[in-house]
Amino acid sequence: MGRLFGTDGVRGVANAELTPELAFRLGEAAGHFLCDRGRGRVVVGKDTRRSGDMLEAALVAGICSSGADALNCGIVPTPAVAFLTRELGADGGVVISASHNPAEYNGIKFFSRDGFKLLDELEDEIEDFLENGERAFTRPVGLAVGRAHPLEDAVERYVAHAVSTVPGGLAGLKVALDCGHGAAARTSERALRELGADVVAINCDWDGMDINGGCGSTHLGPLVALVRESGADLGLAHDGDADRVLAVDETGAEVDGDQIMAVCAAQMKHESRLPHDTVVGTVMTNLGFEVAMRGLGIATVKTKVGDRYVLDQMRSMGAMLGGEQSGHIIFMEYATTGDGLATGLQVARVMKATGKPLSELTRVMQRYPQVLVNVRVSDKGRMATSAALAAAIAAEEEALGVSGRVLVRASGTEPVVRVMAEASELEAAEGAVYRLVEVVQAELG
User: Fold this and answer.
1) To pair with 300 at 20 to 30 A between CA atoms, which of 45, 172, 275, 348?
2) pLDDT tens profile 89-144
3) Are residues 355 and 408 in the same domain?
4) How far apart are CA 410 and CA 246, in angstroms?
């Protein structure tokens, strides 16, 4: 089979591609590889998808079958599992979520005992284990079989940690919140209220099939309307597992991850809290961000798309801030993975510290016009060998010159090729993208 792990764990349509049988084997692998050959504890969390119960039952059975204990958090954000794994001294963590994907999808991703996503090499070992028809170890019996324990204060522990990152509180701020019918419904409103903010919230319920449905960080329309209707100072929108956040300023203008990082990086440099005066982004980071950071004396380092690659770079160089345009942002001082709640709280903290509205703070950078089209294809693997596509990309790059760029890449989780262009003029970016889209469709189906 092809590589099972994508950029953010194992993902697929629940009960078709991501089956209970696969979840069980992944549970066995968690116990075997994250723990001491099955002896230890694994923190388990999930988002609000209907298939979460099914996959959780199979996953936990696999963990216990390996000899490890499962600490079940129920519905919590992904960053809560990473935090609790460290907080409790557990041997690893597992999250059942497909993040921003539609409700019929689900996923399983692992965290090591220090709260970080697994290295590619360890994921490769797990894949070898799953492909091996003969089990690589003998299943324990009797007292050696693991048990499942509910972690009833999981939400309380995570919220208390989030609140502790804003010592001055947020009294006086009015925050509009869209939980996207996802895991943030259990944590974000509560944390904001504990910090003294006035909160108006939507999409904090769920039925298992409405997660990310026309709301949250992938559909900001409802939040924009809420900000304008309520007169909020700030709007925050999460995806299904709340490891990302996007914002809306007091005028109703959307604020993406690059702008959020620019606002926070500027304040962190002012406060001498930005080691090496460096921020880590990705190849998707807007050119306007780089220009703005350069003007502030801050260097920008780029990685492949995926918060795991951002995190690897941050760890290797001791950086404290990094992230993606999509709203996956890592504040290493507070989290070991993208944390939508921590990020939203830091934006609010900067607003309180400076006394400035978000619309003024975001002027720190001027976004270059950027056009992105997701092209559904039948075989994204052919992208690397298409001479016609390579020639088309080279031609567009030459035409844009130093005032723009193009990026064509395959999604790590979907049968999609993403075609992006930036330029000083919107028309130039649009033309480059749509010419490349035609080539991608012709070459990859």
Assistant:
1) 348
2) 999 999 999 999 999 999 999 999 999 999 888 998 898 888 875 566 789 999 99
3) no
4) 23
Query: What distance in Å separates the CA atoms of residue 370 and residue 303, rounded to the nearest whole number?
Result: 19
Phi and psi angles of residue 245, each rounded to the nearest 5 degrees, phi first:
-150, 145
Residues 289 and 381 both lie in one domain: no
pLDDT digits (tens, 9 = 90+) for 192-231: 999 999 999 999 999 999 999 999 999 999 999 999 999 9
Closest-CA residue to 83 (of 166, 164, 168, 6): 164
Are 275 and 287 within 8 A, CB to CB? no
What is the strand order of the sheet 69-75 is part of? 10-13, 105-112, 92-96, 41-46, 69-75, 148-150
Helix, strand, or coil (residue 304)? coil
The whole-model pTM stands at 0.89
Best CA proximity match to 330, nearest among 44, 78, 159: 78
305 CA to centre of own chain = 11
Structural element, H or E, at residue 200? strand 198-202
From 215, 235, 252, the end of a domain falls on 252
Q: Which runs of E-coded beta strand occur in 229-360?
A: 234-238, 245-248, 254-255, 278-282, 299-303, 321-323, 329-331
Q: Is 99 a catalytic residue?
A: yes
Residue ranges of alpha helices (H) inside 271-366 are: 287-295, 307-317, 340-354, 358-361
The residue among 117, 152, 187 that closes a domain is: 152
